Amino acid sequence: MTPRTASLWRCPALALAVLLVLGCAAPATSGTDGQPRPAPTPASAPAPLQRTWMLVAMPGFTRAQLQAAQAQTDWRNLPQASAHMGCNRMGYNVALHDASAPWHTLSIGNVFSTRMACPDMQLENAFGRLIPTMQQARVQGHRLTLRNAAGQTMEFVAADWD
């Protein structure tokens, strides 16, 4: 205990006031019937989506270009996702609307990126323009396919797949 906190506890009235304030700020743990209620949990993405994915196909780029850039996206912390297309770190939000098989409907937005100047940012710029247009996702084994309304697709392979 520091000298400052020790002096707080020497004054019982002040200590009681602090405890009362902290107690009032605590979230309710029971319903109107007095029974404990579970803490609210955020909606979670299906487990097969929550992986790191290597980008292997995207319009305008060869597989060799994507591999050379080590292009990947990380969906392990949905609804926040991150990506790396060879230079800057990128981030975006993924909102799942329907997880019915075989295609999940989703929306992707709030794309942002760090601002390092790199010799070739074509892949990064194209990814930043294309990813928010994706509206559907399908997982088949170790492969993730994203598709937009125009029929364009982005193909990914799970990074932990051998």
Strand order of the largest sheet: 1-2-3-4-5-6-7-8
Distance between the termini: 53 Å
Query: How much of the residues is beta strand, in percent?
Result: 25-35%
How many helical stretches? Answer: 4
Mean of residue pLDDT values: 79
Helix content: 10-25%
Structural class: alpha+beta
> What's the shape?
globular
Main sheet specs? 8 strands, antiparallel, barrel
| Number of distinct beta strands | 8
Uncertain residue segments: 3-9, 11-32, 36-43
The secondary-structure element order is HHEHEEEEHEEE
Radius of gyration: 24 Å
Feature tags:
alpha+beta; eight-stranded antiparallel beta barrel; 4 helices; disordered N terminus; 33% strand; 162 residues; globular
Description:
An 8-stranded antiparallel β-barrel has the order 1-2-3-4-5-6-7-8. Strand 2 and strand 3 form a beta hairpin. The protein has helices at 3-10, 12-25, 63-68, 122-130; strands at residues 52-57, 72-74, 80-84, 89-98, 104-113, 134-140, 143-148, 153-158. It contains 4 helices and 8 strands, in the order ααβαββββαβββ. The chain is 23% helix and 33% strand. With 162 residues, it is an alpha+beta fold. The chain starts with a helix and ends with a strand.
